[in-house]
Amino acid sequence: MAVLRRMARRGQRDGAPVVPDDPLDAAQERRVRAVLALGGVPQADLLDGVQQVRLRLLERAASGKEAPRDVSAWAAVVASNLAMDWHRAKRRQERLGERLAALRQAEHPSGEDTSVLSLAVAQGLDQLPDAQRQVVVLRFFADLPVRDIAEQLAVPEGTVKSRLHTAVRALRARLHEDEVV
Question: Which of 23, 89, 140, 154 allows an S-S link to 57, with CB 3.0 to 4.6 Å?
Answer without folding.
Answer: 23
